[in-house]
């Protein structure tokens, strides 16, 4: 009863001001403030300035690129945090994954844990396709939907599938958690490097037109966006693998 | 009157309701995992709230077509870009939260608030 | 080159953090030295920045050369630049201090800790210098995430404290984002200066009221203002010893600065409900000053005593905002600088004691001054400064606050200021009594670590804090003059 009252009070407290004050614009109103002040500039100048038809990509990696640098840093930071927090867990021996209730069948020792995954199909068919698709998403991100985050997630997925299909043996070169966190750091550094190069060229931070090599302005923007996307991809993929490694290290599979 | 209000602003109130549920859940639930789930609900609610501001009647997705260059024909790309950042941030927070829960379960043997407080006192 | 200073101050620690893990592969302590180098370079540049700002007025830096409402902006004024210096000094000292701790783990853990510490400094620097509301949110999240991690490294209880802080901190970040959404829905911009212009032109009082309530709640949680302080004592107590001075010294202050920025710079004194917010802040800070001091009296654990004392000291800062005149604001910022060094210095001392003897409880450290004279000397100076004895900085900041309160005829604020200072005296003299007068305990060192005092890496921060407290106190007129260059325009007439 007390709980119910609490919930009702909180919801009322949150919603009532918005009802009475009438402070929000109607949804979909083309004349409302968020749809008219700066957004018109973004929509009309995306093609001419950023040389990218995808406006969301243009906003996040060109007009407001500094936010995205920090966003990638947040990913990297989360990976490092998970790594060093989980490093404090010591008792690996006791952590065996086993069925929760006794009714479920306990699998025999010596068999892979995740028997639902077919090794042959996963490794020979799925992984190459996912990798190719990841690279397509990476390089096509500035033109259509997609981009660095998605590509990074896909590459991370490939390594994750690998670890799930054969828990104790890896098909890919074995990446320890220190190495993968390092890769994530290098990825975010590549992003920052794009900014440093523009500083070297005499411009502001992430002002792509001031790269120290001379090509047309539109191409400079494309090069900048591509560099940023590659950095983001490495950062995200590294983070995913870091988190996976940090968890796998603490789990003992029964074989 | 209520009809126009709901048509114009109904979704705002639904997202705020979601926010309220999440916030109440964080306060009321005693299981730390449930608190984490409620935290996620709360973050998603604000993301929806922000995305409502990007909607524009008669607009299409913000990928430029060759034939159309009028600003009124595309929805506002800025909230989408911002919320991409917010989603990644919430992902990072959730990841760190899960790692912390793993440690808590490892050290205290439980993720119920009552047990943790009791065992914390025992250790002193 | 000077035009790029605002970004370089933030960028160098960021790059150091990104490359820290890579360089830790070479040797496990290389990463730490990279971080120290980067932060000291930032310190030098922020000093240059301050001189430039004093000379030429506020500096604006536009990312990607997109002008104000389109791109992201860094705006630096004199207050900003001073806080940047403060963060750099505290960060540098904490990095040096952490040299002695955590020597034995493998390279990924040490490199990871340095990365997280460096990103905490980056986040604080960015929150201070940004002029974009959404950029502030991202920096806020970087700060919070690294703080969760550093608190969680403090052992079993640290993990639970970090988890609770994470839940509360996420509520704060979400409320902040909601407030940003309300303002964005009404103005359509994310730039602070542009937003301020639009808000002052039109009739947005209701939306501004709603957004400000959300901002006060969110920054109140982050800075541990009185009713929202629940997470703070446990988090400060159980944080990792090597990172605690930075967390306690700088982390609570920057959200306070952000709140100041919203209340005074974005909204301005023309805001219809401005006086109500000052009243509310005043009531909260009065409660905080009394409650924190009273709770601190009862504590046995040194760390917890200092943590509750922080609750009270944050109250002084927000009291300065609540009075609202330029002199009061200058007093609040002087207290912010002073308290950062005092609290960090006290936690450095506690860290030194923990490092040598592993004791936290007040009952265990009788007459420790014979064993660690220099550390105890600083502790006395810092404690006296907290109480408000001249010529330490604590006296002058309280003097400015009291002066402004008397001028506005807010006698209640003045009375609470005096009462809270007396309560400060009660618990700090308890601390001093334990350190100097009570019976000798036979403390045994954890390891044989030098005959007297701790090692140089621990003593350098202790001595620097000692110098900074006295220097800030002696140069207070100069500092307040620099602060008033900006504050004179924003405060109540």
Can you give a write-up of this model?
The complex is a heterotrimer of chains A (255), B (124) and C (493). By secondary structure, chain A is mostly helical. Chain A has one domain (54-97, 108-249). Chain A has 9 helices and no strands. Chain A is globular, with a radius of gyration of 24 Å. The relative contact order of chain A is 0.15. By secondary structure, chain B is mainly α. Chain B is 73% helix and 0% strand. Chain B has helices at residues 2-28, 32-52, 77-108, 113-123. In chain B, helix 1 (2-28) runs antiparallel to helix 2 and helix 2 runs antiparallel to helix 3. The mean pLDDT of chain B is 84. Chain C has a domain at 273-493. Chain C is built from 19 helices and 2 strands. Chain C has helices at 5-24, 30-56, 78-97, 107-129, 133-152, 156-187, 192-201, 205-223, 232-238, 244-251, 253-267, 274-297, 302-323, 326-357, 373-387, 393-407, 411-436, 456-474, 476-490; strands at 59-62, 73-76. In chain C, 66% of the residues are buried. Classes of the chains: A mainly alpha (255), B mainly alpha (124), C mainly alpha (493). Chains A and C meet through helix 1, helix 2, helix 3, helix 5 and helix 8 of A and helix 1, helix 4, helix 5, helix 6 and helix 8 of C.
Order of helices and strands of chain C: HHEEHHHHHHHHHHHHHHHHH
- Largest sheet, strands/sense/barrel of chain A: none
Q: Span from first to last CA of chain A?
A: 49 Å
Mean pLDDT over the residues of chain A? 79
> What's the story with the biggest beta sheet of chain C?
2 strands, antiparallel
What coarse outline of chain C follows from CA principal-axis ratios? globular
Q: What is the radius of gyration of chain A?
A: 24 Å
Outline of this structure?
Chain A has 255 residues and is an all-alpha fold. Chain A is built from nine helices and no strands.
Topology:
The complex is a heterotrimer of chains A (255), B (124) and C (493).
Chain A: H1 2-21, H2 33-36, H3 39-50, H4 55-63, H5 65-86, H6 119-140, H7 148-165, H8 177-200, H9 217-249
Chain B: H1 2-28, H2 32-52, H3 77-108, H4 113-123
Helix pairs in contact in B: 1-2, 2-3
Chain C: H1 5-24, H2 30-56, E1 59-62, E2 73-76, H3 78-97, H4 107-129, H5 133-152, H6 156-187, H7 192-201, H8 205-223, H9 232-238, H10 244-251, H11 253-267, H12 274-297, H13 302-323, H14 326-357, H15 373-387, H16 393-407, H17 411-436, H18 456-474, H19 476-490
Antiparallel strand pairs in C: 1-2
């Amino acid at each position: 009863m007390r709980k119910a009252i609490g919930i009702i009070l909180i919801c009322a407290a949150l919603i009532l001001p918005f009802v009475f004050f009438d402070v929000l614009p109607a949804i979909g109103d083309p004349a409302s403030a968020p749809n008219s002040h700066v957004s018109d500039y973004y929509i009309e100048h995306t093609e001419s300035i950023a040389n990218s038809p995808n406006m969301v990509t243009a906003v996040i990696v060109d007009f407001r690129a500094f936010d995205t640098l920090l966003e990638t840093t947040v990913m990297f930071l989360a990976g490092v945090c998970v790594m060093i927090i989980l490093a404090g867990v010591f008792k690996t021996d006791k952590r065996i994954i086993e069925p929760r209730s006794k009714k479920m069948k306990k699998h025999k020792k010596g068999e892979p844990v995740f028997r639902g995954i077919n090794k042959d199909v996963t490794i020979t068919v799925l992984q190459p396709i996912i990798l190719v698709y990841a690279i397509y998403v990476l390089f096509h991100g500035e033109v259509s939907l997609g981009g660095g985050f998605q590509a990074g997630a896909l590459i991370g997925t490939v390594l994750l599938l690998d670890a799930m299909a054969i828990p104790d043996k890896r098909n890919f070169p074995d990446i320890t958690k220190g190495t993968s966190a390092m890769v994530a750091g290098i990825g975010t550094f590549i992003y920052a490097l794009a900014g440093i190069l523009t500083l070297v060229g005499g411009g502001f931070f992430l002002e792509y037109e001031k790269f120290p090599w001379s090509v047309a302005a539109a191409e400079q923007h494309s090069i900048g966006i591509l560099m940023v996307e590659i950095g983001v991809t490495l950062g995200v993929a590294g983070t995913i693998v870091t988190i996976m490694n940090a968890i796998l290290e603490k789990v003992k599979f029964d074989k | 009157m209520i009809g126009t209000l709901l048509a114009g602003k109904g979704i705002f109130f639904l997202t705020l309701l979601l926010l309220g549920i999440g916030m109440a859940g964080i306060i009321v639930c005693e299981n730390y995992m449930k608190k984490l789930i409620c935290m996620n609900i709360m973050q998603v609610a604000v993301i929806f709230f922000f995305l409502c501001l990007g909607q524009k009647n008669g607009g299409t997705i913000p990928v430029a077509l060759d034939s159309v260059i009028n600003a009124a024909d595309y929805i506002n790309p800025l909230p989408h870009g911002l919320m991409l950042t917010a989603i990644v941030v919430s992902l990072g927070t959730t990841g760190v939260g899960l790692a912390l829960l793993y440690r808590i379960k490892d050290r205290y043997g439980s993720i119920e608030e009552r047990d943790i407080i009791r065992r914390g006192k025992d250790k002193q | 080159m000077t035009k790029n200073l605002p970004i370089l101050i933030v960028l160098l620690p960021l790059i150091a953090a990104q490359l820290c893990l890579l360089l830790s592969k070479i040797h496990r302590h290389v990463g730490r030295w990279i971080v120290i180098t980067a932060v000291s370079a930032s310190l030098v540049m922020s000093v240059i920045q301050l001189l430039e700002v004093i000379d030429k007025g506020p500096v604006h830096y536009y990312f990607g050369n997109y002008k104000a409402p389109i791109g992201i902006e860094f705006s630096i004024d004199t207050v900003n630049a001073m806080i940047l210096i403060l963060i750099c000094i505290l960060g540098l000292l904490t990095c040096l201090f952490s040299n002695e701790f955590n020597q034995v783990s493998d390279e990924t853990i040490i490199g990871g800790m340095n990365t997280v510490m460096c990103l905490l400094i980056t986040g604080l620097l960015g929150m201070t210098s940004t002029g974009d509301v959404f950029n502030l949110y991202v920096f806020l999240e970087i700060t919070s995430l690294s703080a969760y991690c550093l608190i969680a490294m403090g052992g079993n209880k640290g993990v639970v404290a970090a988890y609770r802080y994470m839940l509360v901190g996420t509520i704060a970040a979400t409320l902040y984002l909601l407030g940003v959404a309300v303002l964005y829905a009404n103005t359509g911009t994310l730039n602070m200066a542009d937003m301020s212009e639009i808000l002052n032109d039109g009739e947005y009082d209701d939306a501004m009221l709603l957004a400000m309530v959300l901002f006060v709640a969110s920054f109140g949680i982050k800075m541990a203002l009185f009713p929202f302080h629940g997470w703070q004592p446990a988090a400060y107590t159980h944080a990792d010893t090597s990172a605690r001075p930075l967390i306690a010294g700088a982390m609570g202050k920057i959200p306070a600065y952000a709140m100041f920025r919203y209340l005074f710079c974005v909204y301005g004194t023309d805001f219809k409900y401005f006086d109500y917010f000052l009243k509310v802040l005043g009531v909260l800070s009065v409660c905080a000053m009394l409650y924190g001091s009273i709770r601190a009296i009862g504590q046995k654990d040194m760390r917890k005593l200092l943590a509750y004392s922080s609750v009270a000291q944050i109250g002084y800062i927000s009291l300065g905002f609540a009075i609202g005149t330029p002199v009061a604001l200058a007093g609040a910022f002087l207290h912010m600088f002073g308290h950062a060094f005092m609290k960090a210095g006290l936690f450095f001392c506690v860290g030194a004691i923990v490092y040598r003897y592993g004791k936290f409880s007040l009952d265990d450290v009788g007459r420790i001054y014979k064993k660690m004279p220099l550390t105890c000397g600083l502790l006395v100076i810092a404690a006296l400064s907290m109480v408000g004895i001249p010529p330490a900085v604590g006296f002058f900041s309280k003097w400015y606050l009291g002066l402004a309160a008397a001028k506005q005829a807010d006698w209640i604020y003045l009375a609470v200021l005096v009462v809270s200072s007396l309560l400060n005296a009660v618990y700090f003299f308890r601390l001093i009594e334990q350190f100097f007068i009570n019976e000798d305990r036979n403390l045994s060192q954890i390891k044989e670590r030098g005959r007297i005092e701790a090692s140089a890496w621990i003593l350098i921060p202790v001595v620097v804090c000692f110098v900074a407290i006295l220097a800030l106190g002696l140069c207070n007129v100069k500092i307040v003059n620099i602060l008033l260059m900006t504050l004179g325009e924003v405060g109540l007439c």
